[in-house]
Amino acid sequence: MQELDNPTVAETKRFLELYTGIQSYKQEVDANCNITEAPFGFRFKPSSVRAIYDADYLLSQQEKGIELNPAEKAYREFCNQKIRWRHRIRHECIPADKILRVWRERQIKRAKFEFGAERDDYFIHVPLMFELAEGCSVGCWFCAFSASKLSKLLPYSVENANLWRGVLKAGIDVIGPAARWSTDYFATDPLDNPDHEKFCRDFHEIMGMWPQTTTAIAHKNIERLKGLLPESREAGCRVNRFSVITTKNLEKIHNSFTAEELRDVEIIAQSQDSTFMKAKAGRYIDSAKKSKKIENREAEKTVIAFEDTHSREEATKLAAEMEDQAGSICCVSGFLVNMVEKTIKLISPVGADERWPLGMIVYDQADFKDEKDFPEVLQMMQNRIKLRLDVNDIPRFSTKAEFQLLEHGFQLKSAAIKISFTQEGYADVLRYVGELINEGVKSANEICLLTFYKTSKPMQLTMGILQELFKGGYLDEDPKTPSQGYYKNGGPQMIGELNEKVKTAKEMIYSE
Ligand code: SF4
Prior knowledge:
The chain is an alpha/beta fold.
């Protein structure tokens, strides 16, 4: 018998799925937290965990010095465990290989600058990811990856099983144990592939971990999931996800699984009714452009989210400030391997824009033929990764950065944060280097020479500044810009190898 005054964690979680997924129920609860009838025949008394969903109430309780009740404490601890689990994965995703590790660190810094530390925390930056299909059967109107229609699947034949197992082993060899945190879907739905479980079993045997399943077609695969969820749990997988696109699907899922069975399954309520905000990327942007209704509805969700902690007026202002903040759902900073097309891409998250509408930068791409050449191709791509700025590169600030001169240096501002580069005694160098990078036409070598002639500061100092900016992810690494290009041409060069085009730095200064 369900205890209405002391619900279990699974029951509280189910209540929250209904509260955030169905507007009319949310309104009923907000008007009366003692109602016990919830949608789909579920019985729950919201007042038993009010501090979990009502921020104002929580604050008033804290002001009175009243502690959380046992049900609220248990749910809070459940959430904290999830956060710890995510942090553990993020930490264990650090590649053993130095090149990939340094590159991933740079991508994380770049993403932190663009999105802010809090939003970046949601990106795991997994170094490896697989797809076992081409396209996706679901066709969500908000798909941030604009996934194409499902066109091909990788069946678990003897040949493909050998390919898969060989590729997984190479992943571990090249990347290290961090590869175990990859999964077998990206811009695809894993349950589209009827052999997903077979591929997962191989993955578990080789990687020592069962890959997470995130699916938007749980409602069509109830019996299959009744087997998959416990099997994945037993094999160490702590989180699976159902993306729920309509209220009808949520009803089917809730009626088919008990709250306990879905305790470790995150239900992402994506229905129009839900309070869950969509990432502004890919197909979402196209849909919002076509429909004012969608745009307004999503804008209102942002206001509601801020209303938890701000007045309506402040929340509206904050939401308006966020309006132009680009989105991304790319959780990979590493290799994305499509097993059907036999392609490998080196990708990382970025706020969707005209250049990268899917919210991910594609730094490099290559094809492979089979499990024999896969390790070589992966290694070749890894070797093409640049660890430092070359003297002939033309440093430019990230397109997400707004440059401003300061008295003792300069400042870069993204949509999320401002960061100052200042140092007394070095203001002249920093200001001049900042200006030259902002112009975006001089090579690293030219910047070092020009700065030397203008400020008499050693070229090594300027090169050091440039390398630090590169390492910090503040410089544009667009692979499409030929002069900057991602591909190494000959590896890092020494500062003494001067650009022949520079006749004398003095001439350059005075010809400006
Ligand atoms: S959001 Fe996921 S399920 Fe929906 S179309 Fe895109 S890849 Fe498929």
